[in-house]
Specification:
Largest sheet: 4 strands, antiparallel
Number of domains: 2
Transmembrane segments: 12-32, 38-57
Helix content: 25-40%
Oligomer: single chain
Keywords: Membrane, Transmembrane, Transmembrane helix
C-alpha cells in the first residue's frame, strides 16, 4: 500500500475554512468588543492557513479503492464505480500571471449526471521539462493515474486537452 501527501485541499475544506475565517471574528467581537474582532481575525486566519496547507493523504496500491483523507474529512474513490479517468495540464489565471496546473480527474455518474473527483497540483518549469522528456513520474498525481490505469486500462483516457472552465 503506497501512501503519499498531495498539496491539494478539497472544495468542502476551502468553503469551511473561509466560513470560519469570517464567523470567528464576529463571535469574538460580540463577546469581547473591538479587541475580540482583531483576535478573531488572527485566530480565524491561523485556522484557515492550517486547514488549507495540510495536504491530502492518498493511499492506493491494494485493491480497487483509493483512500483519501484531509484532516477530519475522509473519502474513497472506488475504481469499479468510476466511468473514466484522465489527466490534463490546465492553465490557471491567478494574480501574478498564469500558472500551469496538472489535473487528475475521476468521473462517475450520479442520476445521469457526470460528477468527478479532482486532484490538482501547480507545476513549474522543471515539471514541464520532465513531461517533455517523458519522465512524468516525478509528479505524485501521475503515480495515482498509473496505478488506476494498471487496474482498469479500459477506463483510462490518458491526456485530454483542457476543456475550459465549465468542463
Amino acid at each position: 500500500m503506497k501512501k503519499m501527501r498531495i498539496n491539494d485541499a478539497p472544495v468542502l475544506i476551502q468553503v469551511i475554512s473561509l466560513g470560519l475565517f469570517f464567523i470567528i471574528p464576529v463571535v469574538c467581537m460580540r463577546k469581547w468588543g473591538d479587541a475580540g474582532e482583531l483576535i478573531g481575525f488572527i485566530v480565524g486566519g491561523a485556522i484557515m492557513i492550517w486547514l488549507l496547507t495540510r495536504g491530502t493523504i492518498v493511499e492506493f496500491g491494494k485493491g480497487t479503492v483509493i483512500r483519501c483523507r484531509y484532516a477530519f474529512y475522509m473519502w474513497k474513490i472506488d475504481l469499479k464505480k468510476i466511468d473514466r479517468f484522465s489527466y490534463s495540464i490546465d492553465e490557471l489565471i491567478a494574480r501574478g500571471g498564469p500558472r500551469s496546473v496538472f489535473t487528475l480527474r475521476f468521473y462517475y455518474k450520479v442520476d445521469d449526471y457526470d460528477e468527478k473527483y479532482v486532484f490538482r497540483k501547480i507545476i513549474d518549469k522543471n515539471d514541464i521539462i520532465n513531461f517533455m522528456s517523458g519522465n512524468m513520474e516525478q509528479i505524485e498525481l501521475m503515480e495515482i493515474y498509473r496505478y488506476a490505469e494498471s487496474v482498469y486500462p479500459e477506463k483510462a483516457e490518458g491526456y485530454v486537452e483542457d476543456r475550459g472552465f465549465f468542463e
